[in-house]
Write a structure and sequence with these properties.
Layout: E1 6-9, H1 14-30, E2 34-39, H2 45-55, H3 65-82, E3 87-92, H4 96-106, E4 111-115, H5 128-136, E5 140-144
Parallel strand pairs: 1-2, 1-4, 2-3, 4-5
């Protein structure tokens, strides 16, 4: 099972990047691939600007959320590749926790890695994603201190 995938969620924020790096570190030790997941719903207009600044991507909230999310997960994949970790990316519509759980089940993940803090937005309660994932996952969950 050590080579089964690790799933990690990101919203493009610096704190979420800490979770991506931890997933990469574990994947390198275990010889496992990483699946980086981002939900378009997790992008609020403030998050778009911050994520764009953090990753050097020009993003806006005028209907380009999916493109912004794709740029963010592609950057995370590139970061993992530099650490010689194989990574796949998933941009999902809808709730971030549901996206993580669905991808994890779909790839038979051994673990889901999430940060304990993230960006807040109108539809995202601080800590709600790791809370919901930890209670519903069918695999191990690592909640990384990111704040």
């Amino acid at each position: 099972m050590s080579d089964a995938p690790i799933v990690v969620g990101t919203d493009g924020s610096p704190s979420a990047n800490r979770a991506v790096l931890k997933a990469g570190e574990l994947a390198g030790l275990l010889g496992a691939p990483v699946h980086v997941v981002m939900s378009c719903e997790s992008i609020a207009s403030v998050a778009l600007a911050a994520a764009g600044a953090a990753y050097g991507t020009v993003v806006s909230d005028d209907g380009t959320a999916r493109e912004a999310a794709a740029a963010i997960v592609d950057r995370a994949r590139a970061d993992l590749k530099q650490s010689e970790v194989k990574a796949e990316v998933h941009v999902c519509e809808g709730d971030p926790a549901e996206a993580l759980l669905s991808v994890a089940d779909g790839v038979a993940a051994q673990m889901i890695v999430v940060g304990n803090r993230g960006m807040s937005g109108a539809r995202r309660v601080l800590g709600s994603v790791p809370n919901r994932v930890s209670h519903r996952a069918s695999c191990a969950v690592l909640i990384v201190p990111t704040g």
